[in-house]
Amino acid sequence: MTEYSSILLENAVNELARLPGIGKKTALRLSLHLLREDKSRTEALSRALSLLREKIVFCKKCHNISDSALCAICSNARRDENLLCVVEDMRDVMAIERTSSFNGLYHVLGGVINPVEGISPSDLKITSLIERMKTEDIKEVILALPATIEGDTTSYYIYRFIKSENLKITTIAKGVAIGDALEFADEVTLGRSIMNRTPFDNG
User: Fold this and answer.
1) Residue 82, φ and ψ in degrees, nearest 5
2) Cβ of 83: how many Cβ atoms within 10 Å?
3) In the predicted model, what is the mean pLDDT of the chain?
4) Residue pLDDT, tens place only, 98-123
5) What's the gap between Cα 70 and its chain centre?
6) What is the DSSP string of 109-171?
């Protein structure tokens, strides 16, 4: 016999508990909340999640999440096409955009080099980054990767391939604490780190 008195409730709790940061107690609370809500609210949530999985794509240029082949940032003519910010994942794009301190373009790697977890350079969007350097008029690359051993390793790996006399390569200032992910930095600190970026080879 199920402890939840309903196999349907138990199934909902088990599925919600699979989400990161959500345990069984929180999953039960969310499930009961949805039961108390108007049916239309639950249906709207279900539709939103279904559309998220069915319709969302990755931008063919920067690999950020998008509703179309080219994301809203890459297709925005007002963005500075000479400035490219390299980040670990789309959460970093969101974090930097919230600061309103950056008006360039992005390149989302999809992770950082981490041999312990089996993540090699070939698993990341580094090849497409190098191709962008050849085909786009990029004058500065900001390596905005985590201040961790893995982030630094990835930055140095990329630096070796893209360094040239005509390209300025910078990294965000050390306002972001060592070991911190960009998504957890406050907007003021992250904004200042972007604005006060320093040459990468002097970092």
Assistant:
1) -90, -10
2) 18
3) 88
4) 988 899 999 999 999 999 999 999 99
5) 16
6) -SS--BGGGTB-GGGTTHHHHHHHHHHS---EEEE---SSHHHHHHHHHHHHHH--TT-EEEE
Query: Tell me, what's the pLDDT at 186?
Result: 57
Question: Do the domain assignments include residue 97?
Answer: yes
Both tokens of 178, joined, read: 């060592």
Nearest to 144 by CA among 109, 113, 115: 109
For residues 153 and 98, what is the distance between their CA atoms, to the nearest angstrom?
27
pTM of the model: 0.78
Tell me whether residue 49 is in a domain.
Answer: yes
Predicted confidence (pLDDT) per residue in 33-44, tens digit: 999 999 999 999
- Per the structure, the complete domain to which residue 27 belongs is given by 7-55
* Total of domains in the chain: 2
Return d(Cα 101, Cα 195) in angstroms, integer. Answer: 7
Q: Verify that 96 and 184 share a domain, yes or no.
A: yes
| Rounded distance between C-alpha atoms, residue 115 and residue 122, angstroms | 12
Contacting residues for 122 by C-beta, under 8 A, at least 6 apart: none
Distance of CA 76 to the CA centre of its chain: 19
Size (the chain), residues: 203
Asked if 48 and 111 sit in the same domain, the reply is no
* CB-based contact 105:196 (threshold 8 Å): no
